[in-house]
Every structure is written in C-alpha cells, then in structure tokens.
Amino acid sequence: MLAGKKILIVDDEPDVLETVVEVLHMCSTDTAGTFGVAHELLRTRQYDLVILDVMGVKGLHLLDLAVQRNFPAVMLTAPAMSPQYILQAFKQGAISYIPKEDLSLLDKLLAELLEIISRGQSPWPHTLSRLTPLLDTHFPAGLSEEYKILWHELESLAP
After folding, report:
1. Which long-range contacts (CB under 8 A, 24 or more apart) does 136-144 make?
2. Which of 19, 36, 47, 133 is the most buried (most CB within 10 A)?
3. Domain ranges of the chain
4. What order do you get walking across the sheet with 28-32 strand by strand?
5. Res. 131: pLDDT tops 90
C-alpha cells in the first residue's frame, strides 16, 4: 500500500526525520525541519500523504494548507497529545494522530489508514481505538470524562 507513495515528513527534530525516512524506505520522501520549508513544499509539490509534527513546526497551521491541497495529513507528536489537540486536528481535517512512541509501527499504521480511506471510510475510529489505551496511561484518570466528551464529538463529526 505504501510502495512508491510520495510523502512529506515535517518535524523540527532531525533524528525523528531520519527515523521516519528509514521506516518509510519503500516511499519517496521529502523532509522539512522548519515551518518555512514545509510551507513551500506543501504549496509547490504533490503528495500522497503528509506527516506533520504538531509543535515545533506549527503543524496545525501547516495542516490547513495540506487539507486545502487535498493531501491526507497525519499529525505526529509526543508533547501535544491531549484531547484538545486531537479534536483540533480532526476538526481541521487530519486523518489521524500518531504518537512518536509509535514510530516503529508507522509504516503499518499509515498503510492501514490509506486502506481505510481507499474504502471511503473515516480513519478516526481506527485512530481512537488505538489511542485510548495510550491516553489512559499518559494522563490522569480524572481526564477520562474529557476523553468521553472528545470521543463523542469525534463520532458526531465523522462522515
């Protein structure tokens, strides 16, 4: 499913860019370590998929451009994994939200997401089922009510 796909990877951490390029060796990849470079690539090139870091490169701003250009966009992050960011990414048109802890599984996860999209289905149930246990371990139990609200909002927005 990923072989030959053109993918833009945007992250301000060079080691993350290097790791993602290695994991996605079967793809044709471009990388950007800054907002400016990423913005220019998004404006001028075509991609089958875009992977955006949330924080260091203003990923939510870049997400708007990716969505305008009809590029499926996945948010990749560690520090910003919160219900609010997940909901914001979904509302802005991201197809998924993948924690950096899952980089070794990135090729598998992206292939699953592209398969789901090719069937005309929303990728968000897949993302939510995958993220629930991780969110439960990263955040205090008191946030479980906030998760329920987030999941309800996402389910109501899903096509």
Report:
1. 138/81, 139/82, 143/83
2. 47
3. 6-157
4. 28-32, 6-10, 49-53, 73-77, 96-99
5. no
Angle formed at CA 59 by CA 80 and CA 92, multiple of 5 degrees: 90
* pTM of the complete model: 0.85
Residue 57 to residue 142: CA distance in whole angstroms:
30
Distance CA 97, CA 138 (A): 15
* 65, 42 Cβ separation under 8 angstroms: yes
Question: Is residue 61 pLDDT above 60, yes or no?
Answer: yes
The fold adopted by the segment(s) 6-157 is Rossmann fold (3.40.50)
Q: Compute the distance between CA of residue 19 and CA of residue 96 in angstroms, rounded to an integer.
A: 19
Place of tokens 């070794």: 104
* Strand-pair category, 73-77 with 49-53: parallel
